[in-house]
Design a protein that fits this description.
The structure holds two protein chains of two kinds. Chain A is mainly α. Helices cover 73% and strands 0% of the residues of chain A. Chains A and B meet through helix 1, helix 2, helix 3, helix 4 and helix 5 of A and helix 1, helix 2 and helix 3 of B.
Chain lengths: 169, 110
Protein backbone atom coordinates (compact mmCIF):
# COMPACT_ATOMS: atom_id res chain seq x y z
CA UNK A 1 0.00 0.00 0.00
CA UNK A 2 1.60 3.25 -1.05
CA UNK A 3 1.28 6.65 0.60
CA UNK A 4 -1.21 8.08 -1.89
CA UNK A 5 -3.63 5.20 -1.41
CA UNK A 6 -3.34 5.51 2.38
CA UNK A 7 -4.06 9.25 2.18
CA UNK A 8 -7.02 8.53 -0.11
CA UNK A 9 -8.53 6.02 2.32
CA UNK A 10 -8.14 8.31 5.36
CA UNK A 11 -9.59 11.29 3.50
CA UNK A 12 -12.43 9.20 2.09
CA UNK A 13 -13.39 8.06 5.60
CA UNK A 14 -13.33 11.68 6.81
CA UNK A 15 -15.45 12.82 3.84
CA UNK A 16 -18.06 10.09 4.31
CA UNK A 17 -18.19 10.64 8.08
CA UNK A 18 -18.65 14.38 7.56
CA UNK A 19 -21.45 13.75 5.05
CA UNK A 20 -23.20 11.41 7.49
CA UNK A 21 -22.72 13.95 10.28
CA UNK A 22 -24.33 16.59 8.06
CA UNK A 23 -27.25 14.25 7.46
CA UNK A 24 -27.93 13.21 11.06
CA UNK A 25 -27.13 16.35 13.07
CA UNK A 26 -30.05 17.71 15.07
CA UNK A 27 -28.77 21.27 14.78
CA UNK A 28 -28.59 23.00 11.40
CA UNK A 29 -25.42 24.86 12.39
CA UNK A 30 -23.64 21.55 13.03
CA UNK A 31 -24.87 20.31 9.65
CA UNK A 32 -23.37 23.35 7.93
CA UNK A 33 -20.03 22.93 9.72
CA UNK A 34 -19.89 19.22 8.83
CA UNK A 35 -20.52 20.18 5.22
CA UNK A 36 -17.59 22.64 5.35
CA UNK A 37 -15.37 19.77 6.54
CA UNK A 38 -16.64 17.63 3.66
CA UNK A 39 -15.90 20.39 1.11
CA UNK A 40 -12.39 20.76 2.56
CA UNK A 41 -11.59 17.07 2.14
CA UNK A 42 -12.99 17.10 -1.41
CA UNK A 43 -10.67 20.05 -2.14
CA UNK A 44 -7.73 17.88 -1.06
CA UNK A 45 -8.98 15.18 -3.47
CA UNK A 46 -8.92 17.77 -6.26
CA UNK A 47 -5.27 18.52 -5.47
CA UNK A 48 -4.50 14.78 -5.59
CA UNK A 49 -6.26 14.66 -8.99
CA UNK A 50 -4.09 17.38 -10.62
CA UNK A 51 -6.72 20.12 -10.32
CA UNK A 52 -5.26 22.83 -8.04
CA UNK A 53 -7.34 25.59 -9.64
CA UNK A 54 -10.57 23.71 -8.98
CA UNK A 55 -9.40 23.00 -5.42
CA UNK A 56 -8.84 26.69 -4.71
CA UNK A 57 -12.20 27.57 -6.30
CA UNK A 58 -13.82 24.90 -4.13
CA UNK A 59 -12.33 26.36 -0.94
CA UNK A 60 -13.16 29.97 -1.76
CA UNK A 61 -16.55 29.55 -3.45
CA UNK A 62 -18.06 26.55 -1.65
CA UNK A 63 -16.43 26.46 1.78
CA UNK A 64 -16.10 30.23 1.85
CA UNK A 65 -18.92 32.10 0.14
CA UNK A 66 -21.75 29.56 -0.06
CA UNK A 67 -21.41 28.15 3.45
CA UNK A 68 -21.06 31.61 4.99
CA UNK A 69 -24.33 32.50 3.26
CA UNK A 70 -25.91 29.33 4.70
CA UNK A 71 -24.72 30.09 8.25
CA UNK A 72 -25.91 33.68 7.90
CA UNK A 73 -29.41 32.60 6.89
CA UNK A 74 -29.56 29.92 9.63
CA UNK A 75 -28.71 32.50 12.29
CA UNK A 76 -30.95 35.16 10.72
CA UNK A 77 -33.98 32.88 10.81
CA UNK A 78 -33.15 31.49 14.26
CA UNK A 79 -34.20 27.99 13.25
CA UNK A 80 -31.19 26.07 14.53
CA UNK A 81 -33.39 23.17 15.63
CA UNK A 82 -36.90 22.67 14.33
CA UNK A 83 -39.49 21.36 16.80
CA UNK A 84 -40.24 17.72 15.98
CA UNK A 85 -43.37 17.68 13.89
CA UNK A 86 -45.70 14.87 12.92
CA UNK A 87 -43.78 12.92 10.33
CA UNK A 88 -45.14 10.54 7.77
CA UNK A 89 -44.49 7.13 9.36
CA UNK A 90 -43.43 5.44 6.12
CA UNK A 91 -41.18 8.28 4.93
CA UNK A 92 -37.92 7.23 6.57
CA UNK A 93 -37.97 3.47 5.73
CA UNK A 94 -39.01 4.20 2.15
CA UNK A 95 -36.22 6.79 1.78
CA UNK A 96 -33.62 4.33 3.09
CA UNK A 97 -34.84 1.60 0.71
CA UNK A 98 -34.67 4.01 -2.25
CA UNK A 99 -31.16 5.15 -1.28
CA UNK A 100 -29.99 1.52 -1.01
CA UNK A 101 -31.40 0.81 -4.48
CA UNK A 102 -29.64 3.89 -5.90
CA UNK A 103 -26.32 2.89 -4.35
CA UNK A 104 -26.69 -0.72 -5.50
CA UNK A 105 -27.19 0.44 -9.09
CA UNK A 106 -24.09 2.64 -8.92
CA UNK A 107 -21.99 -0.11 -7.31
CA UNK A 108 -23.17 -2.66 -9.90
CA UNK A 109 -22.19 -0.38 -12.80
CA UNK A 110 -18.86 0.35 -11.14
CA UNK A 111 -18.00 -3.32 -10.66
CA UNK A 112 -18.93 -4.51 -14.14
CA UNK A 113 -16.85 -1.66 -15.66
CA UNK A 114 -13.94 -1.84 -13.25
CA UNK A 115 -11.66 -3.77 -15.59
CA UNK A 116 -11.89 -1.13 -18.30
CA UNK A 117 -11.08 1.67 -15.86
CA UNK A 118 -8.12 -0.13 -14.25
CA UNK A 119 -4.65 1.33 -14.07
CA UNK A 120 -4.05 4.54 -15.97
CA UNK A 121 -0.68 6.24 -16.47
CA UNK A 122 0.11 9.36 -14.48
CA UNK A 123 -0.14 12.55 -16.57
CA UNK A 124 2.84 14.88 -16.62
CA UNK A 125 3.22 17.19 -13.64
CA UNK A 126 2.29 20.33 -15.58
CA UNK A 127 -1.24 19.09 -16.22
CA UNK A 128 -3.89 20.95 -14.27
CA UNK A 129 -1.91 24.15 -13.81
CA UNK A 130 -4.06 27.28 -13.51
CA UNK A 131 -2.37 28.54 -16.67
CA UNK A 132 -3.65 25.60 -18.71
CA UNK A 133 -7.15 25.92 -17.27
CA UNK A 134 -7.16 29.66 -18.00
CA UNK A 135 -6.03 29.13 -21.58
CA UNK A 136 -8.77 26.59 -22.20
CA UNK A 137 -11.37 28.75 -20.44
CA UNK A 138 -10.68 31.90 -22.43
CA UNK A 139 -9.90 30.22 -25.75
CA UNK A 140 -12.40 27.39 -26.16
CA UNK A 141 -15.06 28.30 -23.59
CA UNK A 142 -15.31 32.09 -23.82
CA UNK A 143 -19.02 32.23 -24.67
CA UNK A 144 -20.13 29.94 -21.80
CA UNK A 145 -17.91 31.97 -19.48
CA UNK A 146 -19.68 35.18 -20.48
CA UNK A 147 -23.06 33.47 -20.12
CA UNK A 148 -22.22 32.53 -16.51
CA UNK A 149 -21.62 36.19 -15.74
CA UNK A 150 -25.12 37.00 -17.00
CA UNK A 151 -26.45 34.09 -14.91
CA UNK A 152 -24.81 35.47 -11.76
CA UNK A 153 -26.22 38.93 -12.49
CA UNK A 154 -29.73 37.45 -12.85
CA UNK A 155 -29.31 35.53 -9.59
CA UNK A 156 -28.20 38.68 -7.80
CA UNK A 157 -31.15 40.71 -9.09
CA UNK A 158 -33.52 37.85 -8.29
CA UNK A 159 -32.30 37.53 -4.70
CA UNK A 160 -32.74 41.27 -4.14
CA UNK A 161 -36.21 41.35 -5.72
CA UNK A 162 -37.35 38.38 -3.63
CA UNK A 163 -36.23 39.74 -0.28
CA UNK A 164 -36.82 43.49 -0.64
CA UNK A 165 -39.59 44.96 1.51
CA UNK A 166 -41.88 47.48 -0.17
CA UNK A 167 -42.54 50.69 1.69
CA UNK A 168 -45.89 51.00 3.41
CA UNK A 169 -46.44 47.27 3.94
CA UNK B 1 -1.50 5.62 -7.50
CA UNK B 2 -5.19 5.46 -6.70
CA UNK B 3 -7.34 3.94 -9.46
CA UNK B 4 -10.02 6.19 -10.90
CA UNK B 5 -12.67 3.64 -9.96
CA UNK B 6 -12.03 4.38 -6.26
CA UNK B 7 -12.79 8.06 -6.80
CA UNK B 8 -15.96 7.17 -8.70
CA UNK B 9 -17.01 4.86 -5.87
CA UNK B 10 -16.49 7.62 -3.31
CA UNK B 11 -18.47 9.96 -5.54
CA UNK B 12 -21.32 7.42 -5.68
CA UNK B 13 -21.33 7.10 -1.87
CA UNK B 14 -21.45 10.88 -1.37
CA UNK B 15 -24.20 11.25 -3.97
CA UNK B 16 -26.27 8.56 -2.25
CA UNK B 17 -25.88 10.28 1.14
CA UNK B 18 -27.04 13.54 -0.48
CA UNK B 19 -30.08 11.89 -2.05
CA UNK B 20 -30.93 10.29 1.30
CA UNK B 21 -30.70 13.70 2.94
CA UNK B 22 -33.17 15.18 0.45
CA UNK B 23 -35.58 12.32 1.14
CA UNK B 24 -35.52 12.08 4.94
CA UNK B 25 -34.88 15.59 6.28
CA UNK B 26 -37.70 18.14 6.65
CA UNK B 27 -35.62 21.27 7.18
CA UNK B 28 -35.27 23.02 3.80
CA UNK B 29 -31.82 24.35 4.74
CA UNK B 30 -30.51 20.81 5.27
CA UNK B 31 -32.20 19.69 2.04
CA UNK B 32 -30.34 22.51 0.29
CA UNK B 33 -27.05 21.38 1.82
CA UNK B 34 -27.76 17.83 0.61
CA UNK B 35 -28.24 19.16 -2.92
CA UNK B 36 -24.86 20.90 -2.63
CA UNK B 37 -23.36 17.58 -1.50
CA UNK B 38 -24.76 15.85 -4.60
CA UNK B 39 -23.37 18.56 -6.91
CA UNK B 40 -20.03 18.13 -5.18
CA UNK B 41 -20.07 14.36 -5.73
CA UNK B 42 -20.72 14.92 -9.44
CA UNK B 43 -17.82 17.40 -9.54
CA UNK B 44 -15.51 14.83 -7.99
CA UNK B 45 -16.45 12.32 -10.69
CA UNK B 46 -15.83 14.98 -13.39
CA UNK B 47 -12.34 15.77 -12.08
CA UNK B 48 -11.43 12.08 -11.72
CA UNK B 49 -12.53 11.33 -15.29
CA UNK B 50 -10.65 14.39 -16.54
CA UNK B 51 -7.42 13.04 -15.14
CA UNK B 52 -8.03 9.58 -16.55
CA UNK B 53 -8.91 10.92 -20.01
CA UNK B 54 -5.93 13.28 -20.08
CA UNK B 55 -3.54 10.56 -18.95
CA UNK B 56 -4.78 8.25 -21.70
CA UNK B 57 -4.64 11.07 -24.27
CA UNK B 58 -1.11 12.12 -23.32
CA UNK B 59 0.11 8.53 -23.23
CA UNK B 60 -0.96 8.40 -26.88
CA UNK B 61 0.91 11.62 -27.67
CA UNK B 62 -2.15 13.87 -27.52
CA UNK B 63 -2.88 17.16 -25.83
CA UNK B 64 -4.12 17.60 -22.25
CA UNK B 65 -7.91 17.93 -22.01
CA UNK B 66 -9.33 20.48 -19.61
CA UNK B 67 -13.02 20.27 -20.51
CA UNK B 68 -13.98 18.38 -17.34
CA UNK B 69 -12.32 20.85 -15.00
CA UNK B 70 -13.94 23.77 -16.82
CA UNK B 71 -17.32 22.09 -16.56
CA UNK B 72 -16.74 21.78 -12.80
CA UNK B 73 -16.06 25.52 -12.75
CA UNK B 74 -19.42 26.16 -14.46
CA UNK B 75 -21.20 23.81 -12.05
CA UNK B 76 -19.78 25.83 -9.15
CA UNK B 77 -21.08 29.06 -10.70
CA UNK B 78 -24.55 27.63 -11.19
CA UNK B 79 -24.50 26.30 -7.60
CA UNK B 80 -23.64 29.75 -6.29
CA UNK B 81 -26.52 31.33 -8.23
CA UNK B 82 -28.87 28.59 -7.08
CA UNK B 83 -27.94 29.08 -3.42
CA UNK B 84 -28.45 32.85 -3.63
CA UNK B 85 -31.95 32.54 -5.10
CA UNK B 86 -32.91 29.53 -2.96
CA UNK B 87 -31.93 31.15 0.33
CA UNK B 88 -33.80 34.32 -0.68
CA UNK B 89 -36.89 32.14 -1.27
CA UNK B 90 -36.49 30.48 2.15
CA UNK B 91 -36.18 33.88 3.86
CA UNK B 92 -39.33 35.10 2.08
CA UNK B 93 -41.29 31.98 3.02
CA UNK B 94 -40.17 32.34 6.65
CA UNK B 95 -41.43 35.94 6.68
CA UNK B 96 -44.91 35.03 5.47
CA UNK B 97 -45.46 31.71 7.29
CA UNK B 98 -43.12 32.10 10.34
CA UNK B 99 -42.00 28.51 9.83
CA UNK B 100 -39.79 26.72 7.35
CA UNK B 101 -40.87 23.14 8.07
CA UNK B 102 -41.61 21.78 4.62
CA UNK B 103 -44.57 19.80 5.95
CA UNK B 104 -46.33 23.15 6.41
CA UNK B 105 -45.55 24.38 2.91
CA UNK B 106 -48.59 22.86 1.20
CA UNK B 107 -50.46 26.03 0.25
CA UNK B 108 -50.50 25.09 -3.43
CA UNK B 109 -51.97 21.66 -2.71
CA UNK B 110 -55.16 21.11 -4.71
Amino acid sequence: MNAELLAFIILAIIAIAAALGMLFSRSTVYSALFLVLNFGTVAVFYILLNAPFIAMAQVSVYAGAIMVLFLFVIMLLGTEALPPSRALPWQRPLAIVLAVILFAEAAYLLFIRRVAAGDVPQPIQAFGSPQGVGNALFASYLLPFEVTSVLLLIAMVGAIVLTIREKGK
Amino acid sequence: MVPVADYIGLSAILFTIGALGVLIRRNPLVIFMSIELMLNAANLAFVAFTRMYTALSMAGGGQPVYSGQIFVFFVMTVAAAEVAVGLALIVTIFRTKHSIDIDNLNSLKG
